[in-house]
Fold:
Amino acid sequence: MLKAVTKRFADNSTLTRFEFEFCCDCCEKPLPPVVIEPQFRFKKKLWLTRDEREARAIIYANDHSRAYERANNEIRHELNRCETCGEMVCEDCTVYGSLEGGGICCKRCAEKRKIKREKENHNGSV
Structure:
């Protein structure tokens, strides 16, 4: 299975819908869930043969895998990749223009850069 785009995510899928919830790598705030309708719907039957159960399980697993891949691709548009640490962060945790050349980074890396610059300035002025 494809690796999740964020470090923390939840698969809240059921037999009737696929739902994936991803969290920002910086603040761990959950983003709105990605909900995908299954491609295949099964009619409810009281009794299933073993072959029918196995076939349904295979179809469901393939459908789930495609939905998960699609959810990963959709959530990428809601996140930014920190150019320093590579983590996927929400808009609230994105700091624009903090890198040389105007790149983007997360709040944590921006804070580390700020502390490093302050130390360098403090050591240089002593």
In short: The helical segments are 50-76, 107-125. The longest helix spans residues 50-76. The two ends are 55 Å apart (CA to CA). The longest strand covers residues 18-22.
